[in-house]
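Lecture notes, unit on protein representations.

Consider one protein chain, 234 amino acids long.
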Amino acid sequence: MVEKANKRPRIVLLVEDDKNVAEFICNGLRDNGYLVDHVADGDMGLRRAKQGQFDTMIIDRMLPRRDGLSIIQSLRSADIQTPVLVLSALGEVDDRVKGLKVGADDYLVKPFAIEELLARVEVLIRRGEVAHSETRLSVGDLEMDLLTHKVTRAGQVFNLQPREYRLLEYLMKHAGQVVTRTMLLENVWDYHFDPQTNVIDVHISRLRQKIDKGFETQLLHTVRGTGYVLNAPE
């Protein structure tokens, strides 16, 4: 049983299309104190993984619409480092190596005992808590608390909409780097095509009004013809 005293419930994202397997895993996790968010296809799994704050993810390798390894690659490209356990009926050494190389943290072959899955999940969560002990981002005097979602600059608190928060978080995690429109579309809006709209320009403008207006030093800059960069002068 997962220890609950003085701890918030751990949240697990399960991406599994087999109803019987999903029910088996969900029951096992919930009986041991976990909260489970279950989705049954790869596209929805990727969207949910990018939108939610999970302690770990369990992702089946073979899924409708998008395979599990593709999900992991997209998450790591977006700098989402939530620990991932891959489930698969493919158990050869080459299959395991391929899963780990794309960014999975562990690989469990079907069929499996629920006790083994629970043990692996617990290890991944402990490892993730150590790896992600840093809970604040800062660029100059701009700060973001990743736990409370509080954003401040020089003590001034900003009220950001969810999309503005995700945009700023991505820019802060890549501070000093030029991020392209394609990078923002894929990692903030989850678009894998150009919608031919000015949605990015609108949100950048709104974000700039909030974090830069009234301050002597501008942090959010447009790199003409390329994208945007968030940085503070040394």
